[in-house]
Amino acid sequence: MAETLGQNAPTINQQTRGWVGALISQRAGLRIYQWLWIVLCTIGALAAAAPRILSQPVIYMSSAAVQIDIGGRYHELYTDGKPDADFIAVQHITFELLRVQYPELGSPTLHVRFEPHSNGSIDVIAVGSSAIEAQMLADSAAEELARSVRAAGGREILRNLLGWELAAALRGDAPETPFQSFLREIIRTGVFSLNRPIEPVSQHITADELAAPELSDLTRALEVGEVQTRIYTLPALGLQLATAEGAVAEQITRDQQRLTDGLQAIRDALNYLYVNHDARFDPTVPSDAFRSAPAFLPAAPENRMIPWLLGLTVLFGLLFGLLGVIVDRSAGVMSKARELWFYRELIRNLVLRDLRVRYKGSALGYLWTQLAPLLLMLVFWFVFSVFFQSGIAMFAVFLIVGLLVWNYCAESVSGGTRSIIDNSNLIKKVFFPREVLPLVNVFSGLLNYILSLPTMLLVMAVVQLLYSPLQGSLNFSWTMAYLPILLIIQTIFLAGVTLFTSSLAVFFRDAVHLIGIIIQFWFFLTPVLYSLDAIDATIARIIRWVNPMASLVDFYREILYGNTVADGLIPTPGLPALTSVLRVLITSIIVLALGYWFFQRNSGRFGEEI
């Protein structure tokens, strides 16, 4: 064993000296193209980041505070001193209430967050486009949070009251007060959604017998129910009715009338509590849930740190450029690029050969580049529109944008994996850079994608013209100009993957079959048929970080289709977040570097293995 280590030591030392020598061999200075690379990286970083940095909106920040009794009335909102799922549900209801006052809530210049503490205090931090807006939003959010906390406690009180009225109605007893009549109407219409069904109770319970805190909770629960029914439930039925026909439309119309009657019963019940019990809500009065501190008026906007961010951008560009120079000196990237450029005619001929072979003997020939994605889109559209209704607006456009991107990926990886093995005779007879073969499959997939773009544009135009909310107009956006950037990033990523898999398949032939299975799994891990917005946010974030194709599909959809919205709404195209694009670009470059390193390390033994 010692002898073996002794024999290997000089080899390892020689390799180490070789790498170090490659890094320091050009101490006299950088070459012109290396200086140009550093300058381009710096300018590119500024070009990508500066517009987003300079266009940061001016925002103001304010905060208020809410105090709730987590040791008494509202102990169910906390578990072991930490907010639980019930508290998360209260937050969700609070956001619903706030959107009634602030429809743009959630935008970069208008948003709010809650920071709960173990003692039951909650910091309410609001951001607005002006000082007054930030202050008003913080106060409103604190008020609505306190209201929602009380409503959470009042729902169980309401359930018990409804249970008594249900028992009384089953016995044939007449209502004793107008409020009891309103409760029976709420039961009949089913307008108030509870986490558990209403059950008859034997204990006599009426609102007039409740203590003041319980009356307040009951009133808050009815207030929240009134807003949810008026703002969300009834309008949603209206959207369904717009596209429904026959018996389905008749049933929706009956549901609308039933819920409208129930909404009036809730309003009558609230008016009874306001008039007879003075149950209106004052969030500033100390109680089991109240606004403990009002919001302050911010004196100045938040610091946008533009000089610091621009400086970090320049530094990042310089470091990235220097890293490229180091890689070039150690691995001879530029010399390899020159060599590949010298064989550009070979690459072009092999790509065209692949395209001719693919459609050789078929009656329609190159028309299949247009028909194949169209037919595949129609199959998925039929399945997910008839059997698994997706509810996504302009679903055909949503599908074809994702399918074309995925087809480019799947064709490149599956064909690139077999590229060395399938061309074994060529490798044994002719000298040329072995990297050409997997890259040809990537460029062939890219060409096929570009040739399929007319079909995608045609589908987009037809669907938009037939989509009723657009009223016969087209919704094409200038953001399509971002398409070449995404194609470059995806090509870099796929080149790295195919360089790795093609080399791996030479030594492990089972990899060819395994890659086919992995691609199938990869397909379902990529949001081609669904939107990541429809799944858990944590899982979606993990998928985006682990799977660059998931982010790329989202980017393509954002510039071509728009944000994923429900049927009946209009998706709005936009540009993907700069930080996300940079993350995927850096990931793609790393994948390319690792794939190229693995390929170069093993390419010398290809002739022996095949």
Low-confidence stretches: 1-26
Q: Portion of residues in helices?
A: 55-70%
How far do the termini sit from each other? Answer: 33 Å
Number of strands: 6
Structural class: mainly alpha
Any idea what the radius of gyration is? Answer: 32 Å
Oligomer: single chain
Order of helices and strands: HHEEEHEEHHHHEHHHHHHHHHHHHH
Strand content: 5-15%
Apparent shape: elongated
- What about the largest sheet? 4 strands, antiparallel
The side-by-side strand order for the widest beta sheet comes to 4-5-1-6
Mean pLDDT: 82
How many helices? The count is: 20
Q: Work out the count of structural domains.
A: 2
List keywords for this structure.
67% helix, disordered N terminus, 20 helices, two-stranded antiparallel ribbon, 6 strands, mainly alpha, 610 residues
What does this structure look like?
The structure is a single chain. By secondary structure, the chain is mainly α. The chain has two domains: 234 residues, no CATH class; 225 residues, no CATH class. The protein has 20 helices and six strands. The strands form two sheets. The chain has a four-stranded antiparallel sheet, covered by helices on one side. A two-stranded antiparallel sheet has the order 2-3. A hairpin with a 2-residue loop joins strand 2 and strand 3. Helix 15 packs antiparallel against helix 18. The radius of gyration is 32 Å and the shape is elongated. The two termini are 33 Å apart.
